[in-house]
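WARN no homologs supplied; continuing
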Amino acid sequence: MDIKTDIFNGVVNSPAAPGTEPPAETSATPAPDAGSESSKEFAALSEKIDGLKQLFEDKIQKETHNNQLIDKLYADKKAYEEDIVAAITDPILMEIIRVIDEINEQLKYISEEPSDENYKDLLKRFKQLPLRLDDILYDFDVTSYSIEGTKPDAKFQRFTRVIETDNEELGGTVAEVLQPGYKKGDRVIRHQNIAIYKYTEKKGEN
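OK structure emitted
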C-alpha cells in the first residue's frame, strides 16, 4: 500500500480531537416549487367561485319561491273578489231572470190579433213591469223618491232639460219631474231628473 494513501486514510478515519465537533454534514435546501403555489391559488379561486355560484343559486331559488307565493296570493285575492261580486250580483241577476220569465209567460195570453181589448190588456201588463222591478230593488234596500216643490234641490235633483219661459218669476224653478230618484238607505244612487224653467226676455222688450 502506498504511504500517502495510508496517511490520508488515517486522517479521515481518525476520531475527532477532544473538545471538537465533527464537521456538520451539508444538505441542499430545496427551491420553492412554483407549481405548488399556483395550485393553491387556483384551488382558493375555485372555492370562491363555487361559493358565489351557490349564493346565486340560493338567490334564484328564493326569488322563485317569492314569485310563486305572490302568484298564489294574487290568485286567492282574485277568487275572493269574484266570490264577493257573485254574492252581490247573482241575486239581482236571478230576479231579472224571473221578470223575463214572467213577461214571456204573460205574452202567451196576449192574442196576436190586434184589437182594443188586446191593447188594453197589453198596456195593463206593461204598466206592471216597473212595479215588479221596484219590488226587486226594494229587496236590496233601494227605494224611489220624488221631491216636491218648485225650488231645485241639488242634493237630490239634477236637471236634464231646460224649458224657456218669458215669465221671469218662473226662471230657475222646477218645471217638471222627468224621472224619480233612487237611494239605498240614505245614499243617493240616481238623482231625480227634472226640467227647469229658463227665463228668456221677450223679443222687442227693452
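The chain has two domains: 46-140, 144-206.
OK
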